[in-house]
Specification:
The complex is a heterodimer of chains A (about 280) and B (about 80). In chain A, helix 12 packs across helix 13 (about 220-235). With about 280 residues, chain A is mostly helical. The relative contact order of chain A is 0.12. Chain A is built from 15 helices and no strands. Chain B has helices spanning about 10-20, 30-45, 55-70, 75-79. Chain B is rod-shaped. The chains are: A mainly alpha (about 280), B mainly alpha (about 80). Chains A and B meet through helix 13 and helix 15 of A and helix 2 and helix 3 of B.
Amino acid sequence: MTENTIRRGDKLRTALNKVGRLQSLPQNIQNVLNVLNNKSTMVEDVAREIGKDMAFSSQVLKLINSGFYGFVTPVKSIPHATVLLGFNTIKTLVTTTSMVSMFSDAFEGLWTHSLACARACSSLARLIGSDDPEEISVVGLLHDMGKVVLEQYCKDEFAEIIAAVKSENLLMTDAERRIIEITHADIAGWVLQKWHLPEDVVHPIVHHHTWNAGSPFAHRTAILHLADILVRAIGCGSGGDNRMPLANNEALAFLSIKQDNLPRILDVLFVELDEFI
Amino acid sequence: MLAKGGTISAGLIRSLQRMNVLEVAIEDGNSHNVEAVREKIAALRNRFAGHEENPFMCEIERIVREHVEKSIAPLQDAQ
């Protein structure tokens, strides 16, 4: 490792520590999480706690109705959302609400790519017969959170990565590995863990470019890996580069997805993702 | 200059003559769409460059390309 790389690594760690300090979860979100973590909590308790802060309550509803779930009719109340999505998903959504504002300053196309990936994750989960399509859509929504953090907190390194992506037509992950020796997926994992998101959300995000069968959440990770590839193929928003990552054959086999299944899967996605193209 | 379905009246022709306008080209909205589809297909080919030997990736590209091409077919039929 060169002296320059070590210096760069230290700088990156300092910048990321700053993110950890700045972005601790607001008190209102911690209160809601405490209520949700209580085993005797009822739907009305959750609604009451979220409803104490009207602005926050409307942010949660805005996120639910932002398009990534693809509900046909808008969800108008927190009790309705809680019944529809379940406590686990609401817990993740409540935490996610505090992060979504960061996407507004992200590079062009990333939010659309993230929304489309969220929708693709839930569509794939339904097609495969998974029992958690709503929960997995949050994983899709946040899978590129590391790029947002890099762009906003490590501006010099991000500019260098983007320059390499453009001049050499690289994948973001390849440019990141070369320049900062870690990827946006590693950074997302680090930040999301700090924000206490559950492991079944964090792990798939960390490994969506490095799937392995031995992982405890291999199924979700494989769905996210494939969703990201298909969303890029269809051309929804931008992940920051202009290349397709290679689909992992073992991940496809794990999901029992073969080449013959692609026409049906893509037919569903062309309809589901039409608004993001 | 004119909304869709508008008429080039004698008055408008006289105004154009006063402005020394010698010819008017009518833009073809469909040709813009055809061009946009061509650009989409070129971008798709660029995104998939390097995956020519991978059957799964090639199949994704083929299906997406056909989907994009389908959007141009009704326009070409109408021309």
